[in-house]
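Need residues for this backbone.
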């Protein structure tokens, strides 16, 4: 049986991690894999996470099953952070815990496939490389459109407007709620407003991927586009990840929320999400969501988490400012948000940056701004110049 399989290409970012580790040069800089790093280059366990883990160790008295929807108190406590306090959301929103944002996207895709198999998913490119395969594996048709021009680092807004305007009622629009991966280019609030109007006018369903809330301009600001859209549309899906903003990566913590047109549809959405979770993973892993719940249940731990998240956000934006200060023509990096920027370069140039300068970034030209220190800005700019970027 297995001889019929074709080999799949290895994950290039994982190869990059190995190559970086094997590089013995001092001064090498890792802008590759998409995790936050602190001023010591570490990806730390956040202080509030440590406190919550200690609390759980001391007090958790059972690990019995919770069910396919996971920890519903976790799901509820995240709600005001994501959606604010609008009463509308109390009656038309339902959520389940999922293994990471990836699990939320998977269940979201299957829910769309179950409800409306002919819906197309509109996906602006470039995007997170896992988006298109997740939708395809749920047997949904993906319609690509160009989202940015990497040479000018500008949103191709006419292309966005064309894609949305030419879609059929019920088609789904994947939107990065904040901190676009891989480009760091978010829509302006004026553009978000126009997108919201198009969603409403063409009866399109937004699927908002919110994987970096708090790492752009702060928790509230990063949620503003999501809240504006939900205020205006009838139905929406929100795939949320706590893996970046709680630093929980391999614990796999996320949630899928669905906003229905009316209260009557809530039960249908809820029972379908639970049934889909059941056939995918039966029940989500508990520990990470229990940590987040514990933090959000405690005012002290919540304050600790918020303060450290702000520090992380400031550090990334400080690195962005350091590059902009070192090279005026890279000033766009300081206007972008989240962990990433995507420079326009060939994979040969990315390879030369690694081989000649010890600067590691994805072959696509995506760089993780959290991987550097402000003092590295000069070396990064010098290397980019030497390679003609
Ligand atoms: N969406 C985007 C845009 C992402 O960048 C990521 C993670 N890289 C995810 C979703 C998935 O997050 P998780 O690790 O929680 O599955």
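Answer:
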């Amino acid at each position: 049986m297995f001889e019929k399989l074709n080999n799949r290409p290895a994950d290039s970012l994982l190869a990059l991690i190995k190559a970086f580790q094997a590089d013995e040069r001092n001064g090498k800089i890792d802008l590759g894999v998409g995790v936050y790093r602190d001023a010591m280059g570490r990806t730390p366990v956040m202080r509030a996470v440590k406190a919550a883990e200690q609390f759980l160790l001391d007090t958790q008295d059972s690990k019995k099953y919770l069910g396919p929807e996971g920890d519903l108190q976790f799901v509820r406590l995240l709600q005001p952070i994501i959606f604010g306090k609008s009463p509308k959301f109390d009656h038309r929103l339902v959520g389940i815990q999922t293994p990471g944002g990836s699990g939320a996207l998977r269940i979201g895709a299957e829910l769309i496939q179950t409800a409306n198999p002919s819906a197309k998913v509109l996906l602006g490119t470039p995007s997170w490389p896992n988006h298109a395969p997740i939708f395809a594996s749920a047997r949904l048709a993906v319609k690509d459109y160009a989202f940015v021009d990497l040479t000018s680092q500008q949103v191709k807004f006419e292309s966005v407007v064309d894609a949305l305007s030419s879609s059929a009622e019920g088609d789904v629009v994947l939107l990065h709620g904040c901190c676009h991966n891989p480009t760091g280019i978010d829509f302006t609030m004026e553009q978000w407003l126009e997108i919201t109007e198009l969603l409403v006018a063409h009866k399109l369903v937004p699927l908002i991927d919110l994987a970096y809330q708090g790492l752009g301009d702060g928790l509230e600001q990063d949620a503003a586009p999501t809240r504006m859209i939900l205020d205006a549309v009838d139905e929406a899906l929100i795939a949320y990840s706590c893996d970046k903003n709680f630093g929980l990566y391999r614990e796999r913590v996320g949630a899928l929320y669905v906003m229905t047109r009316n209260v009557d549809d809530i039960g249908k959405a809820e029972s379908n999400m639970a049934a889909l979770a059941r056939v995918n993973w039966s029940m989500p892993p508990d520990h990470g969501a229990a940590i987040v719940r514990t933090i959000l249940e405690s005012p002290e731990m919540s304050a600790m988490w918020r303060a450290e998240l702000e520090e992380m956000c400031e550090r990334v934006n400080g690195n962005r400012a350091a590059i902009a200060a070192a090279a005026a023509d890279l000033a766009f990096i300081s206007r972008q948000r989240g962990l990433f920027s995507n420079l326009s370069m060939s994979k040969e140039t990315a390879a030369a940056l690694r081989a000649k300068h010890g600067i590691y970034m994805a072959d696509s030209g995506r760089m993780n701004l959290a991987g550097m220190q402000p003092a590295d800005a000069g070396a990064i700019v010098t290397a980019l110049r030497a390679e003609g970027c």
